[in-house]
Every structure is written in structure tokens, then in C-alpha cells.
């Protein structure tokens, strides 16, 4: 019986998978043309699985050495000689699985490793002759695939190794060399100057300018997710609506392979139910669990604090950035899959990652922020028969906000007001409810928060007061938004900095819609 998998390589015989035959076809076309390729994507984005199935496809027409630098440490990269030995030894370790290779090449690889085993070093210039020798005598063209090249990116020995491959490529018409070289990792090897230790100013320029980038979208499409769920449904007969579930999963994951598989895995293994309620339970579990992907993203923000600052500007303050990879911080954030390009604008990669970041940023503040403390103190008075009393929440928040921040200057309140509401609401819904921010409506003047609490949705628009006409447009937009979510009651939190404003909570009627507006 197959299962959903989030660790290691995915195999169709063992795991439910989205079909990515086209992706393999596209890479194979590059190989046939003799291209050198870089594949850089964020952690757990399906790179290793892609390379495994690519190697299986290519082995009919090529000799494929698919190795990884993941097991290498500083000792192996310490010198050019140790790197050369490790590289050839990695080829030797693959001989058992490379079944279509002739004896000459096998013997050449074994001989050079055995001859240098005592010192575990090979003179680097030996590679200059070794590579043409095995490529000339191989019975089929050789394709070299190296995964996890990030492990090597801080070392000068690796730079020299890239130069060697580059020189062989440039002289491929006269000297035998690899048919194709594919380097995969998180960092773009063509921009090694970005891959430096945070405590070091030393930077390298990459010689890997001969490679073509693999720009194909590796996100999982909604129809592919639906077909995967249809296979699961055929096996398990759960009665799920595969189209609706695929849409939900895609809405929250944007097709990020780990998020797709992990949400499905949680629903399946925890028996949460293949419906909207079951999905929300899985989403809540994903948002609170400790896993290697979230750990890696947090580490990246620690290593590159400018990424964290930029994400806060986007999420808390609605700052707009054009998607321009010439800007270093945006290039890094995109490389780590924090952000993506949506119509030329920067957006956080998906809804789940966005909410996790909100949670992280509020967690860092909660125990030193008065608003969070008030929310924690007030929380028991806001739930009645499983229904969130949002009217009361807005009323109490308005009271606390005016008491604490009423004396602050306007600029402070405009930038911070919505953040403080999120700090207030978090302990109230924590453990039971779930929220996310609608990215399409977030800017400096408006943010829409959707709260799911025990199966009921609450739509709250948080906005900066820009006059009566602007406010009326906001109310109209909110009623349209309520139609989209099929609810008749919505909430508006207006931060009004006019000296003559009238604070408080009031209820407005728009046809069959009801809006509760709090002015602070």
C-alpha cells in the first residue's frame, strides 16, 4: 500500500506522487544537446527525487554517475588533492549501480583510487588527464550529476574543480569530456559570491558561467495534485471530493512539494478526514510542528538578517517590492523560496509559510508586549458555545489600544496598529483557531485577516483611515469579500488618526450583509 512521503527520494511504487514526466523530459533535452545545467531550488523542493528519476531515464543512452557532496566535510574540501580523491572515490562507489559501463573505465577508476588510498589524495592535475581518459574509452557518453553542491561552495578547491570542468567544456570539440554536467543545490552556483559564511568577507567569483539555468517551474500544479489524490481515493474509497481538496492544498501550498506532501501525509496518518475541517486540522499541525524545512528557513534568516527585515516589511507593513533579482536581498529570499514573483511583485511563497512567519515574528514579541498580555488575560471571555465573539474582541482591543498607544505619534500607530491586533488575537485563538492574511489585499492601507475557528470563518479588514469616501469604498470591498467567502457578517478595524475622530464599535447594514466596525 502506497503512502505519502516527505523524506528522501519518492518512488511511484511506494509513494503517492504528482507526475513530473515533463520535468524529466525538459532536462533530458538539455542533456541530449550537451548542455551543462544548474538546478537550484529551496530545501525539500523535489531536487533529489528529480535527479534520481532523471538518472533512471538517461541510463538507457548514457553512462550516468549521480553522486552527492552531502557526505563531504571540511577535510574532503581542505585541499585540491583531497577534493580530487573524494570525487573519484565517489565515482568508484557508484560502479555497482552503473551496470552499462565497460571494464576499461571501471578499471581506470578503481586503479586510481587504490593507488592513492593511503593518503586519500590525488594530485589535481591528474584529473586533467583522468576525465578525458574515461570519457574517451567509455562505451557510452558520460553524464555527471552532483547533488548538494552547496556543501562545497565555501571552498577554493571547489572553485578550481568548477574551472576544470569549464575548461573541459570549452575544449569539448578537441578533447573528450562529459556529455553533460548537472549541479544541483539551494544556492545558484553561477553566483557563488552570494554563498559566503556570515562571519567572513571573503568572496569568490564563480567560473560556472557556461551552464544554462533550469528555469522550469518545479512547483506541483493543481491538476497534478488532483490526479495524485484520485489515485489515493481509488485505493482508499474515502469519499473525498478530489477537486476541492486539490484546490485547498494548492491554495495553502502554492504547489511547494514538501507542503503538498506533508499536508496529505498528516490527513492520512492522523485520520483527520479528507474534507475542509480535516484539512484545517492538518494545516494547524503543520504550522506548529518542528521540521527540517522550517528549521532551515529560520537558520537562513539568522544568517541573513536582511531577509528577515524585508519579510517583516512585507507582512506587517504592506511594503511593496518589485520582483528584481538584481537586488541582493530579494535574490537570496527567492533562492531560499521565501518569496515568489506574482505579476512582477514580491509575494511570500505560500499561505502556510506566511502564517508560520507571522507566528514566528509574534512569538518573538509576545512576552514583552502589553497587547499580547491583554489578549492572554481576556481570552476566556470571547468564546460562547464554540462561537468566537468577534464583536467583543474588537471592543476590548480598541479599549486596550487607546489606553496603551493613544499618546503615541501618528506615524508610529500607522505602522504598528495591525501588528498589535495580531499580537492581541493570537492567544485568543491559539490552539483552537487558525488565521491567515489575504496577500492580494495587503498593502500599507489595508490588510484582510481570515480566522477559521471551529469550522466558522471570520473576515476582518484592518485599514488606515483615509477619509469618509475611502472608508465607504472599503466597506463596499468588504461586502464583496464576504460574498466570496459565503458569509453575511464581517468586521472592520479602522485606525483613525484624526483628532476629532469618534472611537468605538458600531454595526452597519449593507443589504443582507452586516459589518461591525471598530474605530481606534
Any overview of this molecule?
- The protein has 520 residues and is an alpha/beta fold.
- The chain has 4 domains: 21-213, Rossmann fold; 222-288; 292-349, no CATH class; 365-519, no CATH class.
- 48% of the residues lie in helices and 15% in strands.
- The protein has helices at 21-32, 47-58, 74-77, 80-93, 103-115, 124-137, 156-170, 222-236, 242-253, 257-269, 276-288, 292-303, 305-317, 328-335, 351-365, 370-378, 390-405, 410-429, 468-485, and strands spanning 37-40, 63-68, 142-147, 180-185, 212-213, 339-342, 345-348, 383-384, 387-388, 433-438, 446-453, 456-464, 489-495, 504-510, 513-519.
- The strands form 4 sheets. The chain has a 6-stranded mixed beta sheet with strand order 10-11-12-13-15-14, sandwiched between helices.
- The longest helix has 20 residues, at 410-429.
- The radius of gyration is 28 Å and the shape is elongated.
Amino acid at each position: 500500500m502506497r503512502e505519502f512521503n516527505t523524506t528522501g527520494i519518492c518512488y511511484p511504487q511506494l509513494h503517492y506522487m504528482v507526475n513530473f514526466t515533463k520535468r524529466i523530459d525538459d532536462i533530458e533535452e538539455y542533456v541530449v544537446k550537451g548542455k551543462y545545467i544548474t538546478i537550484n531550488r529551496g530545501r525539500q523542493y523535489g531536487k533529489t527525487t528529480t535527479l534520481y528519476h532523471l538518472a533512471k531515464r538517461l541510463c538507457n543512452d548514457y553512462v550516468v554517475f549521480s553522486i552527492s557532496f552531502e557526505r563531504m566535510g571540511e577535510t574532503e574540501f581542505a585541499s585540491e588533492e583531497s577534493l580530487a580523491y573524494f570525487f573519484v572515490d565517489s565515482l568508484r562507489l557508484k560502479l555497482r549501480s552503473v551496470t552499462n559501463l565497460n571494464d576499461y573505465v571501471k578499471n581506470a577508476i578503481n586503479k586510481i583510487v587504490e593507488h592513492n588510498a593511503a593518503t586519500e589524495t590525488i594530485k589535481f592535475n591528474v584529473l586533467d588527464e583522468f576525465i578525458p581518459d574515461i570519457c574517451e574509452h567509455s562505451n557510452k557518453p558520460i553524464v555527471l550529476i552532483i547533488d548538494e553542491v552547496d556543501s562545497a561552495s565555501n571552498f577554493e578547491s571547489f572553485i578550481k574543480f568548477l574551472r576544470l570542468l569549464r575548461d573541459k567544456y570549452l575544449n569539448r570539440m578537441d578533447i573528450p569530456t562529459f556529455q553533460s554536467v548537472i549541479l544541483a543545490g539551494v544556492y545558484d552556483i553561477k553566483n557563488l559570491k552570494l554563498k559566503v559564511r556570515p562571519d567572513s568577507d571573503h568572496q569568490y567569483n564563480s567560473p560556472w558561467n557556461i551552464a544554462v539555468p533550469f528555469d522550469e517551474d518545479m512547483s506541483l500544479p493543481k491538476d497534478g495534485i488532483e490526479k495524485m489524490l484520485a489515485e489515493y481515493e481509488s485505493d482508499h474509497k474515502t469519499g473525498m471530493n478530489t477537486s476541492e481538496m486539490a484546490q485547498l492544498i494548492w491554495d495553502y501550498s502554492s504547489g511547494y512539494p514538501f507542503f503538498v506532501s506533508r499536508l496529505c501525509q498528516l490527513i492520512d496518518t492522523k485520520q483527520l478526514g479528507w474534507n475542509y475541517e480535516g484539512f484545517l486540522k492538518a494545516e494547524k499541525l503543520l504550522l506548529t510542528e518542528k521540521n527540517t524545512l522550517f528549521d532551515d528557513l529560520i537558520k537562513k534568516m539568522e544568517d541573513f538578517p536582511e531577509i528577515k527585515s524585508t519579510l517583516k516589511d512585507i507582512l506587517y507593513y504592506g511594503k511593496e517590492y518589485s520582483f528584481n533579482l538584481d537586488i541582493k536581498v530579494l535574490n537570496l529570499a527567492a533562492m531560499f523560496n521565501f518569496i515568489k514573483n506574482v505579476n512582477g511583485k514580491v509575494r511570500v511563497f505560500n499561505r502556510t509559510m506566511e502564517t508560520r512567519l507571522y507566528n514566528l515574528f509574534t512569538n518573538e514579541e509576545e512576552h514583552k508586549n502589553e497587547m499580547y498580555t491583554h489578549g492572554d488575560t481576556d481570552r476566556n471571555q470571547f468564546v460562547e458555545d464554540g462561537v468566537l465573539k468577534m464583536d467583543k474582541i474588537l471592543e476590548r482591543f480598541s479599549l486596550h489600544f487607546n489606553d496603551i498607544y493613544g499618546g503615541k505619534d501618528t506615524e508610529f500607530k500607522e505602522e504598528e496598529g495591525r501588528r498589535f491586533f495580531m499580537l492581541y488575537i493570537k492567544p485568543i485563538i491559539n490552539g483552537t483557531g487558525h488565521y491567515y492574511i489575504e496577500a492580494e489585499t495587503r498593502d500599507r492601507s489595508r490588510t484582510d485577516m481570515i480566522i477559521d475557528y471551529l469550522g466558522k470563518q471570520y473576515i476582518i479588514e484592518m485599514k488606515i483611515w483615509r477619509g469618509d469616501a475611502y472608508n465607504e469604498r472599503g466597506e463596499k470591498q468588504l461586502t464583496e469579500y464576504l460574498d466570496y467567502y459565503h458569509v453575511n457578517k464581517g468586521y472592520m478595524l479602522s485606525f483613525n488618526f484624526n483628532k476629532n475622530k469618534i472611537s468605538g464599535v458600531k454595526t452597519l447594514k449593507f443589504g443582507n450583509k452586516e459589518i461591525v466596525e471598530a474605530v481606534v
